[in-house]
């Protein structure tokens, strides 16, 4: 198995702590030889893209072969996760350890917390999802620009990243047959000037998605070296 760093973007919020702790514990159970850390940056508001980039920097600096970028509310299945790690270690694209993204919402999450197996919990399938968990070599992450740290607060970074990946690497991310499960928590604010700016930026990515020169121009300067804070997850 390659040397693996699991980076969990995380800024503590009371209603999300339980999901974070379950997520960190699951990675430790499924990948007992991996290093699992929480990652935050000094961005205000919270910047998911910045946390992912910083986790990749940390993995690269410490000589890890593969980094798993796992949202703090998303639980993987063991087989697809391990398959994605093995494949990503020798791959020039990002790997997603799922073909089906299940949002458990409140009902399904309650069932899971009461002891029901994840696969049996009530859920909503999110068609076309490309977020939640990425598995990648550090050099592959940077070859398509990482993720754009102009996305602050909620929304947009995943769709923009997918467009950049497909455009600059010439292929979609590789998916591994299986499911991930997103736990319920209080939703982020989906309104205001920053939310509007995020989706205006996504539109620019979509406009550039068939033009590599335009895409490279768009991502130039989109990644900073914001100071991070980190701790061992969970």
Describe the fold and architecture.
- With 234 residues, the protein is α/β, with parallel strands linked by helices.
- The chain is built from 8 helices and 11 strands.
- The protein has helices spanning 17-30, 48-61, 78-88, 105-113, 138-143, 157-169, 193-208, 212-219, and strands at 4-9, 35-41, 66-70, 74-76, 95-96, 100-104, 124-125, 133-136, 174-175, 179-183, 228-232.
- Strand 1, helix 1 (17-30) and strand 2 (35-41) form a beta-alpha-beta unit.
- The chain is globular.
- The two termini are 23 Å apart.
Short description:
This protein has 234 residues and is an alpha/beta fold.
Summary keywords:
globular; 4-stranded mixed sheet; 8 helices; 234 residues; 5-stranded mixed sheet; alpha/beta
What percentage of the residues does DSSP assign to strands (E)?
Answer: 15-25%
The count of β-strands is 11
Sketch the topology as an H/E string, one letter per element: EHEHEEHEEHEEHHEEHHE
* Rg on CA atoms, Å: 17 Å
* SS-based class: alpha/beta
User: What is the chains' assembly state?
Assistant: single chain
With strands numbered from the N-terminus, the spatial order across the biggest sheet is 8-3-1-2-11
Helix content estimate: 25-40%
Our count of helices gives 8
- Contiguous low-pLDDT stretches (5 residues minimum) are 225-232
What number is the mean pLDDT?
Answer: 93
Broad shape: globular
Main sheet specs? 5 strands, mixed
How far the N terminus sits from the C terminus, by CA atoms, comes to 23 Å
């Amino acid at each position: 198995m390659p040397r693996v760093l699991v980076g969990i973007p995380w800024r503590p919020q009371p209603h999300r702590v339980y999901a974070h702790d379950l997520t960190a514990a699951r990675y430790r159970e499924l990948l007992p030889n991996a290093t699992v850390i929480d990652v935050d940056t000094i961005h205000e508001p919270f910047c998911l893209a910045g946390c992912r980039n910083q986790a990749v920097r940390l993995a690269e600096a410490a000589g890890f072969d593969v980094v798993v970028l796992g949202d703090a509310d998303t639980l993987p299945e063991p087989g697809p996760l391990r398959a994605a790690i093995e494949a990503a270690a020798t791959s020039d694209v990002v790997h997603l350890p799922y073909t089906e993204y299940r949002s458990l919402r409140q009902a399904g999450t309650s069932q899971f917390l009461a002891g029901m197996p994840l696969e049996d919990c009530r859920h909503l399938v999110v068609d076309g999802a490309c977020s939640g968990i990425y598995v990648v070599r550090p050099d592959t992450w940077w070859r398509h620009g990482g993720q754009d740290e102009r996305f602050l607060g909620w929304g947009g970074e995943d769709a923009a990243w997918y467009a950049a990946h497909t455009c600059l690497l010439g292929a979609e991310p590789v998916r591994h047959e299986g499911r991930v499960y997103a736990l319920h928590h209080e939703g982020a604010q989906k309104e205001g000037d920053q939310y509007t700016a995020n989706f205006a930026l996504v539109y620019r990515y979509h406009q550039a998605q068939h033009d590599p020169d335009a895409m490279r121009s768009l991502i130039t300067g989109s990644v900073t070296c914001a100071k991070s804070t980190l701790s061992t997850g969970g």
